């Protein structure tokens, strides 16, 4: 059998892309234990576990602030669908996992939609799926980001200091953290001083 006919019969695997970011990733080798930029093939019945403990997790982060078992991603099939779907579960008893803005506590799960931002501690993971034909295997592709995925998505981007109609910054109108007056600070009425 030549290589061309082998390629034609090989199943296209679903690929779970995981883009990783941590503010200290340049100065600390947080991701050096992960197979970065190379697809890693997994059986669909095996959970993808990410955490600090390389004994219990397939993928280990080199960071003592990460739980031994931080999170788990499990492939499954919806009834009547030929495609793999994925669920994410928080495995940490101490650290909450944010999945697309929803908070997951210990052992709580959420479905991973086509593209979702997951956060725990100072880590951000942008996870998205590239569908495939295989029902019993999938690939995981870890890549690092130079900027936080939340910034790319426009989530939690800090706003500039609000400016009121008086053109004075908000902080100048406050005294000891509270407004100078209980009256509304904005008004369409003209004030006449006598």
TrEMBL record:
It comes from the Eukaryota. Keywords: Cytoplasm, Immunity, Innate immunity. Residues 49-121 form the FHA domain. One of its GO terms (biological process) is innate immune response. One of its GO terms (cellular component) is cytoplasm. Pfam families: FHA. InterPro entries: FHA_dom, SMAD_FHA_dom_sf, TIFA. It is found in: Cytoplasm. Belongs to the TIFA family. PANTHER family: TRAF-INTERACTING PROTEIN WITH FHA DOMAIN-CONTAINING PROTEIN A (PTHR31266:SF2), TRAF-INTERACTING PROTEIN WITH FHA DOMAIN-CONTAINING PROTEIN A FAMILY MEMBER (PTHR31266). This is TRAF-interacting protein with FHA domain-containing protein A. The lineage of its organism: Eukaryota, Metazoa, Chordata, Craniata, Vertebrata.
